[in-house]
Amino acid sequence: MCTDCLHKQYPDRGNTCLENGSYLMNYVGCANCHQRDFVMISNKTTVDEDGEEIVTYLHMCKNCDHVIARHEYTFSVVDDYQEYTMLCMLCGKAEDSISVLPDDPRQTAPLF
């Protein structure tokens, strides 16, 4: 993976988890061919392991096939919550948790 192609390695993205796509705001340009063009996604795989879906792919330069970063996205259901994570040198790191119930118990105000 190439640190010279990026503004920042693993930027904090809060709860924005990308299953596909690229965070181009963090892309400086290809350190190999010195072009700033579209970023291709290649070698995309989806694996389901014990109820956890793991999506991985490579971000590559459109012009010279230079590998910019490896992207990993996970999705699982734990108790009553959908859990999402993303880890990628280009897109950043993020986690999110969303209740599968109509009203999220974490968002309810205490009665007293």
UniProtKB/TrEMBL annotation:
What keywords are assigned to this protein?
Activator, Developmental protein, Metal-binding, Transcription, Transcription regulation, Zinc
Pfam families annotated for this entry? Churchill
GO MF annotations in UniProt? zinc ion binding
Q: Which domain of life is it from?
A: Eukaryota
| GO biological process terms held by the UniProt record | fibroblast growth factor receptor signaling pathway; positive regulation of DNA-templated transcription
Family of the protein in this entry: Belongs to the Churchill family.
Quote the protein name from its UniProt record.
Protein Churchill
